[in-house]
Fold:
Amino acid sequence: MNREELIQAIVEKYEAMGQNPDTHLSGLLHAEPMTYWDFIQVDALLGLQTQRTQLKDEMVFIMYHQINELLFKMILWEVDQVSHEEVVSAEKFTKHLSRISRYFDMLSNSFTIMGDGMDPEQYMKFRDTLTPASGFQSAQYRKIEFASTELINLIDYRFRKTIDRDTPYEYAMENLYWQAAGVDHKTGEKNALLSNFENKYTEEFIRFMKEYNLINLWTKFKSLPSKDQKNLDLINAMRHYDHTVNVKWVIHHLEAAKKYLNTGSESAEATGGSDWQKYMHPRYQRRIFYPELWTSEELENWGVTNLEDHKSVSDADSLPLFKA
Structure:
């Protein structure tokens, strides 16, 4: 497109919007050129780290979790491009799932920053200032779960028979798998970790559940034409995503936590007070986004580790793919 054609296209663009093209061209004449630091908002981004202690490694902890939240936002951005598309092809579905999996692969592989990149003595000091806050309280991560699968697959498996399509969202909210991390099952009381989280986000979560009730990735997949539901590239992308989020990422997180919270014969509580070793393990959570895409043996051994016969279910590098 030459200069005359480009100017004409700009004029037509603003006229179609009911705008005066000359005003916009005049504004362009006087505007400052864009810079990297303005476009990325570097100064604002680098000003978001506020320590609660003077311990140097607390800064590592803060920035690492802020990076996680940025990646969660990228994941939700990709999910939206599938969920809110009225008609989505298998190719487009696969493309965005592959992007999402790359983001989660990056998250999974980044835990050495936490596991090996902080001095344990410093961590055990500054972590006390975080109580009762916890990474459990990432609202974006919970939204990723709601947007990835049908709500029934996020219900604590012990209570799934009490849930159906007519169940109020409020009841479902009370029986999500992660409730187990915040309830004292001897007293039935919720701890501060869960209470604070729900007070902040329950209404927002219920709105989000309703929005994604029929457009979450699993429902979207099942609404595709039969031919597309048999597309092996898409099936494998769904399986990879499911395994990466619900086994690989969780196991890496658990192993990183063990380096700091296991101290000799004793085991420290998580900052939120949860029974983290039991709660975090995928064998306990039984969180599976796309159960119909896994064999009965794979489902039975979900999250199994250190078993040679079941390595494919616990080791992402050995994850079996369906072949034509």
User: Anything to note?
Assistant: The mean pLDDT is 88.
